[in-house]
Design goal:
The chain is α/β, with parallel strands linked by helices and 331 residues long. It has eleven helices and twelve strands. The longest helix has 29 residues. The protein binds alpha-L-arabinofuranose.
């Protein structure tokens, strides 16, 4: 490097350091008044998850009076436990987390309780020995979502005169052990029990991702193409399954093709619904940030809160969807 270039870089570095130093005292001073929140997100497996992260980050922003410490657990429960322990050591005011799976949280939440840090669970729910281990849960009723899906399918098949004909179903599950998977799976399994003509061809895990489902569906199609319905537990899985089926020469539609059922209702999922490739997309709302903010503000003021907040959700089908519905969506 020439001496001249070195001098320019050195000057720039000094200037930059100067800027940072000048800005620091102001930032530090205001930091004292911020509400410190540790947020452990399960990962970034889907469009839904990304929208969920953005919603929390936007609601718990500096502008709204928060200092947010974000941790991405990359789909590992151990990473979430480690992050929560770190938040406790950092003495945060609140812990927010979206649990990967339903069980295995007793000890770490006991640690948070002993440190007197309120825990707010978002999205999926958990099963603990003592309900007092967390302060509130904001999320979805996954069993209800699944029930909406199977009831819609029952009506469609009846309308199509297929009530007594065999209906062969491929079931792509989400992350095993997550309450989202458990609820949506239970609804389908109950429907299979009450509809003797519904047959489960196979049940595989797509881990809520397009890439894994594409692989899994490709392998299923090597065994059989005799499929009437593919029940995917989120939009990513539905897209991966459709990719694989189209590549294998199958058509996805309700007019003699494979009926694809999905959950989330992301913009991309709904585009597929508009094209008729996804027959039904049951909404799962990721925009939970404003609810978390509201709960924290109430707790700050010592007001009572709603311990279990289940967000209202709707559904979209290929018969009634239109472009305007998609354009109006935030995720
Ligand atoms: O827990 C919610 C589920 O997790 C969403 O359906 C899915 O897209 C996400 O990854």
């Amino acid at each position: 490097m020439s001496k001249r270039m070195f001098a320019i870089i050195a000057c720039l570095a000094v200037l930059l350091c100067g800027c940072v130093k000048e800005a620091q005292p102001a930032a530090d001073a205001s930091k004292d008044n911020l509400i410190k929140v540790g947020f452990s997100q399960v990962g970034a497996e889907s469009e839904w998850r990304v929208a969920n992260t953005e919603s929390i980050k936007a609601a718990l922003s500096i502008k709204n009076g928060y200092e947010l410490i974000f941790d991405d657990a990359r789909q590992e429960q151990e990473n979430q436990i480690r992050a929560i322990r770190t938040f406790i050591q950092q003495n945060v005011d609140y812990i927010v987390f979206s649990p990967k799976v339903k069980t295995g949280w007793n000890s770490i939440l006991q640690e948070a309780k002993e440190a007197q840090i309120p825990v707010i669970i978002i999205d999926r729910n958990i099963e603990v020995e003592d309900e007092g281990l967390y302060t509130a849960h904001i999320g979805s009723d996954f069993l209800k979502e699944g029930e909406k899906a199977v009831q819609w399918l029952e009506k469609l098949l009846e309308k199509q005169g297929r009530k007594d004909k065999p209906v062969r179903i491929v079931h792509i599950q989400g992350t095993i052990g997550s309450s989202a998977q458990i609820g949506r799976t239970n609804a389908l399994e109950q429907a299979i029990k009450r509809n003797s003509n519904w047959k489960m061809v196979t049940q595989e895990c797509g881990d809520f991702t397009r890439a894994k489902t594409y692989e899994v569906m490709g392998a299923i199609l090597k065994q059989t193409k005799d499929i009437d319905v593919v029940y995917c537990e989120n939009d990513g899985e539905a897209l991966g399954a459709i990719d694989a089926m189209e590549e294998a020469g199958l058509k996805c539609n309700v007019n003699g093709g494979v009926i694809v059922i999905s959950f989330d209702a992301t913009k991309l999922g709904l585009e597929y619904c508009l094209k008729g490739k996804i027959a039904l997309d049951v909404e799962c709302n990721p925009l939970q940030g404003p609810y978390v903010n509201e709960i924290i503000q109430k707790l700050q003021r010592g007001e009572p809160i709603e311990r279990e907040k289940l967000i209202d959700e709707t559904q979209f089908d290929c018969f009634t969807i239109n472009k305007k519905m998609i354009d109006g969506r935030q995720y």
